User: Which sequence fits this backbone?
């Protein structure tokens, strides 16, 4: 499969039917995952507020993990050492363990793991990785998925306006800076990581309103301001207060902020349409730079190096 086809498949990924089974007696949720798999936990955390959710992206788990904790390990390969180690520790504490993976060691150590299709780059499988979590918690239903799929399929790559952003960034060698909004911080971070892995450029993500209490000073006064390309990810559900903040920030700091808007009437459709747009922009930037968006050789080397076999 061409890499662009992996990106294009997002709508179909959303139809994946498996879901994790959620025990009613748990009182907190911990989700472990790294990189392209870890993003699924971040998206979940943006959508779910009924019980405390903690994300783990290292080897260690919080002290509070116990038998009333639902621990979900997410790893596309099933072999990521931080996620495996955190899962083993959670098991020792008696946590209720679930997993989403294509296989690997994770599928061996967690019974009834949700097995998703392999053959993708982990970061391209964001639909497969996230939907079993959202479905398990009843956060998305079939009709919402159908509506979102339609929105994603209406995205015409040949005439899309997003290529323009990549062209501008490339021609002026700009570094992307992405501003999220409440309930959408995960997508800003996703854009950053897609710029990193697909286009091989550094990128920075932060969110409104928090950024107004720190970044704002740098946005106004940093050196080499002209070297950044500012995006804000908005959507039709955006609170008026946040919309005002975007305008005031842009005026006060004298920066041009490019708005990219999600689509549809729900958080789910807006999250995934924004993810899709960011995926394409990072892909086009890779194309412009002449780098292979699929290639993550250094990450793989590093993983092998950690196992003592570079
Ligand atoms: O997109 C990628 O290839 C990486 O960010 C991986 O997702 C990350 O290294 C973790 O691997 P895995 O998703 O297999 O757990």
Assistant:
């Amino acid at each position: 499969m061409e890499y662009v086809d992996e990106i294009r498949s997002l709508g179909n990924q959303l139809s994946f039917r498996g879901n994790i089974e959620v025990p009613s007696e748990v009182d907190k949720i911990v989700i472990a995952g790294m990189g392209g798999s870890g993003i699924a936990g971040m998206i979940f955390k943006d959508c779910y507020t009924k019980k405390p959710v903690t994300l783990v992206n290292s080897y260690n788990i919080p002290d509070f993990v116990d038998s009333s904790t639902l621990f979900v390990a997410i790893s596309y390969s099933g072999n990521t050492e931080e996620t495996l180690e955190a899962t083993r520790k959670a098991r020792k504490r008696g946590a209720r363990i679930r997993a989403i993976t294509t296989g690997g060691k994770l599928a061996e150590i967690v019974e009834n793991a949700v097995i998703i299709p392999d053959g993708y780059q982990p970061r391209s499988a964001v639909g497969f990785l996230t939907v079993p979590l959202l479905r398990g918690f009843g956060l998305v239903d079939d009709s919402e998925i159908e509506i979102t799929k339609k929105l994603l399929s209406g995205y015409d790559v040949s005439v899309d306006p997003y290529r323009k952003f990549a062209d501008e960034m490339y021609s002026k060698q700009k570094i992307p800076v992405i501003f999220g909004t409440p309930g959408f911080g995960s997508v800003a971070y996703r854009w950053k990581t897609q710029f990193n892995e697909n286009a091989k450029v550094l990128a920075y993500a932060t969110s409104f309103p928090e950024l107004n209490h720190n970044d704002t000073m740098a946005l106004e006064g940093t050196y080499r301001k002209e070297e950044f390309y500012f995006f804000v990810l908005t959507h039709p559900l955006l609170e008026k207060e946040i919309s005002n903040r975007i305008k005031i920030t842009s005026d006060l700091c004298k920066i041009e902020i490019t708005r990219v808007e999600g689509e549809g009437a729900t958080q789910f459709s807006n999250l995934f349409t924004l993810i899709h747009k960011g995926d394409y922009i990072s892909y086009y930037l890779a194309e412009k730079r002449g780098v292979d968006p699929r290639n993550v050789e250094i990450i793989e080397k590093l993983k092998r190096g950690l196992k003592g076999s570079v």
User: Anything to note?
Assistant: The mean pLDDT is 96.
